[in-house]
Amino acid sequence: MTASEIASAVVARKMSALDATEAALARIQQHDSILNSFTDVTADRARAKARAIDADIAAGKTVGPLAGVPFAVKNLFDVAGLPTRAGSKINRDLPKARRDATLIERMEAAGAVLVGALNMGEYAYDFTGENVHDGPSRNPHDTTRMTGGSSGGSGSAVGGALVPIALGSDTNGSIRVPSSFCGIFGLKPTYGRLSRARSFPFVASLDHLGPFARSVTDLALAYDVMQGPDADDGACTMRGVEPVTPLLDESISGLRVAIAGGHFQKNVFPEAVEAVSRVAKALGASRVVDIPEASRARAAAYVITTTEGASLHLARLRKRPNDFDPAVRDRLIAGAMVPAPLVDRAQKFRRWYRAQLAEIFKTVDVLIAPATPCTAPKLGQVNFNLDGVELPVRANIGIHTQPISFIGLPVVAVPVPLEPLPIGVQIIAAPWREDIALRVAHALEKMGVVAAPAPRGL
């Protein structure tokens, strides 16, 4: 069942919140030994919350739009009673969190039921979904393949239908990549739209939090209840709540849709080309817009990522270097040695690049681009061939996501259900126009062009 179906059934007393919770816990017990998406299952907490919802309904009290809906969160979110491991070995020694992350509080205020915390790449510095401490999360359509990262457990849990909604983070593509590989919908909102309070950071100037779901309606429901200012996150917008769920069925016929050209039409496998073509055809989009210096934007994102990440982890690198994933440790050490003038140049370029995209969005409402260059690679795969060049998989999975999150644009990743594996397409809008990206995604879903396929590997 989708989240909206569960909530409707719970409110109508056709199903109890406890029944919905027990069903999710049973699916987790049955399938997660294969998928390895969860690192913690909060069964007692979930049952207590579900019973409280059922009691409120029995008493005639109003419950939220996600009443009884099970959800889970990437384990960089603070969950009261658990150490916030952020995919690492080191963080397991931290004191247990005393309070939930803001977004968990808002989801539960809307009636959702937290059932656990999810596997992820160490300290979110990952595109594969492979974790050396907890093992790899596995793709629900082919368990020999990657989920994508770093929100790999979130992608696996929703793609495998263990929960209808999960929360993750996206710095350079970590919502959109797992959405693409696992065949689900994901929303990376505008930078600053959703609070990051009480989540473990990676790169503060690039980090976003957002939802995964199996339908656009569910994605919008989760997004709506999580909106709003939060003084606990200095980057969070002071804009009021701007609900998108009531707008999903509005016509998109007047929207100006274009295909991202240049960088976004290079370094792609045939399946990525086919996915973009299907979406463009359904939307009647033929105009191609070149995004100036997108490759340089990706390079600048790398510079900012590695230097900010290194600064965050310097004390841990000095005290416990051998407790890091070696691949993460080495990238962080390299970041600590990047000359300051390069960082300054990257930030100046960032301002220029943002201005260029602002000009494009004066004549375009939506840009379409691949989410990943290919469908999910094999677990442990080191290299792949992009445009005739042998390149490392880990570093290049985010080749089409990084130039977008670099300036914080809102994106909905939509799954195109190709055979044998799905692949995602980015629906990109101007800042603060999540409503447009979600409306387009919803229209594509109604047309049958995009859909979250049933898990094929379970």
From TrEMBL:
InterPro entries: Amidase, Amidase_dom, AS_sf, Carboxybiuret_hydro_AtzE. Residues 132-153 are annotated as: Disordered. It is an enzyme of class 3 (hydrolase). Residues 19-435 form the Amidase domain. Gene3D superfamilies: Amidase signature (AS) domain. It comes from the Bacteria. Signal peptide: none annotated. Keywords: Hydrolase, Transferase. Residues 132-144 have a biased composition (Basic and acidic residues). Pfam families: Amidase. Its EC number is 3.5.1.4. GO terms for molecular function: amidase activity; transferase activity. PANTHER family: GLUTAMYL-TRNA(GLN) AMIDOTRANSFERASE, TRANSAMIDASE. This is Asp-tRNA(Asn)/Glu-tRNA(Gln) amidotransferase GatCAB subunit A.
